[in-house]
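It is worth pausing here to work through a concrete case rather than discussing structure prediction in the abstract. The textbook approach is simple: state the sequence, then state the predicted structure, then interpret. We follow exactly that order.
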Amino acid sequence: MPLTPGDLNAALSRTLVDEWARAGVETAAVSPGSRSTPLALALAADERIAVDVFLDERSGSFFALGAAKASGRPAIVLCTSGTAAAEFHPAVLEAFHARVPLIVCTADRPPELRDTGAGQTVDQLKLYGDALRWFAEVGAPSESEVTTPYWRSVGARSAAAACGPPAGPVHLNLAFREPLVPTGVDITLPPSRAGGAPWVTSTIRWPRPDPVDVDRLAHLIAAETRGVIVVGWGADVDPEVVERFAGVARWPVFADPISGARQGPNAISTYDALLRSPGVATSLRPDVVVRLGAPLTGKVATSWLDASVPQVLVDPDGAWLDPNRASAEHIVADPSALLDAVSLRGPARSQSFWLRAWQEAEGAARRSMDRLLDSWTEPFEGRIARDLVAGLGTGSTLVVGSSMPVRDVETFAAPRTGVRFLSNRGVNGIDGFVSTVLGAASQSTGPVVALCGDLTFLHDSGGLLGAGRRGVEATFVVVDNDGGGIFNFLPQAGATADFELLFGTPQGVDLSRLAAVHGIQSESVTTADALVPAVHRAIAAGGVRLVVVRTDRVDNVARHRQVWEAVSVPGGSASG
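Step two, the predicted structure:
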C-alpha cells in the first residue's frame, strides 16, 4: 500500500532527526506553525534531542545560537514557512560570522504552490544568501527515496557542514505536502549505519603548522624584542599556550577578556586606558605583532596597531579578520599548535626591558584605576564590569552584551582565570541577547551571568516569555542608564538638538516590573559595593533572576574620562 504524503513527511523527518542525534545534536528550538508539523513531531518524539518551544522565531533562533555557542555542538532551529523564516536571519548572520554551528530548518510549501499566491509562501531558496556553510532544497519527499541513502546523507552532511571547519549555519528548506500528519501506519526508515553511527562520519582537523611557518616565527621572535601578542574573540586558542609563548618571547599579551586569554604575568589589562596617553603610545610602540583571532574591541588599540607595525595574523580557518588591512602575513594554522611549536624552539630570553616597561605601566595604571574606582560609592559602569568579572566564582560563564558592556569589560577587567566569556561579536549586534544567554545557560554546568544595557535587554524582552519554565539558571545584570549610553561618547552627543530623540532613546521602562510580568524576581542595586553580593544571592536562589543597576549616561562619560586622565599621569590620581 503506497504511503500518503503525511507518511512520507514523517519518514523524511524521522530520518533527519535520527541522523542529527547520531551526529551528537542534543538541542532544538521550535516555533509553532502548521507547515513544520512533520519535523516538529519527529523532534518531540526523539528523547535524544531536547526541544524548547518559542512563540517568537527570533528568540528561538538566538536560544539555539547560545546553546551551540556554549556547547560547541550544532543546535537545530525550526519554523514554519513565510515570514517566520525571515525572523531567523539575524541569528544566521551572527552564527556565520562568529563561526557557530547551527542547523536552520525552514518548512515550505511544495513547488506547485509557490508563486501562486498561496498563503504564507515566499521564496525561501537561499533566503540567507551567502551567509551559510551549506544550503539544501531537500524537496518534497517521494516514496522512491525511502530505500535510498538520500535523506540520511542530507542529515549527516548538514551536521558535519555546521561543524566545519569553519563552523557556521546550514539551511535546509523542507517542502511538505498535505496532509501534514501521518496516518499511523508503520513506517520503515531508510537503512542506517550499525552501532549508532551517522551515515557519513566527518572528521574535523585544524591545519597543523607548517615547519616553514614555525621556523619563520621563531626567528622573528629571536630577532625582535619589542613584540606584542594580541588575542581577540574567536581566537580559539588555549590560554596556557599563549602564556607559555609570551614567557618564551618575553612579550606582553593584549588579550580581550572575551578571548578567554587574559591571564598570566605578561597580560596587560589596561592597554585601552594606557594607549590614550600619547607618551605611552609613542614610547611603547612595538616592532612586530602576532595576532590571534579578531581585532580587539576598542578602537584605540586597534588604531594604534596600524599597517606601519608588521603584523602576523593567525587563523585556523583562513579568515581575514583584519578590518584595518594592517597584517603583513597571514598564517592558516591551529593557533595553539603553532604557538606551542614555536615555544619549544626556545630558549626564553633571560630578561626583557621591553616587557618590564609594559608590566610597570600596567601596575601603575591598574593601581590608579582601582584607587579611583574604589573611591566612588555610587555605581559606575566601568566598576560594574570590573567587579563582576572579579567576583564570579571559578567555573562561571559571563555572557557580555555588545555596545558599552563589552567595551567596559575590555577596559576595566583585571586578568583572571576560571571564567568562560561568551559574546555575540560576529556582527556585534544587540539582537537576541536575552535568548542567547538562556540558550547558553541550557548547556552550562556552572553559574551563568549576563551583563548588558537596558536597551539590549529590552530589544529581546520577548526572550523572557516562558524563561522561568525552561529549567535554566541565569542571572542578568542590567545597567539601566535609560537609553543608549554608547552614543554619549560619540560626536552625535554634542552635534544635534535631537540627540535624545534619535540616539539617547530613553524608554522609561521599569525593568523590575517587566521582569515580574514574566514571573522573574529582581533586585535593584544602588551602591557600588552591593553589586557582587546581589549577584551571588541571585545565583544561590536559582532560576532566572535580574539585578538592575541604575547609572547616569552623562555622568558615565565624565567618569570614564576621569579614569583615562588618572591612568595617563604617572602614579596618577584624580578625584571624583
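Step three, interpretation. The first strand starts at residue 27 and ends at 30. Residues 377-568 form a domain with the Rossmann fold fold (CATH 3.40.50.970).
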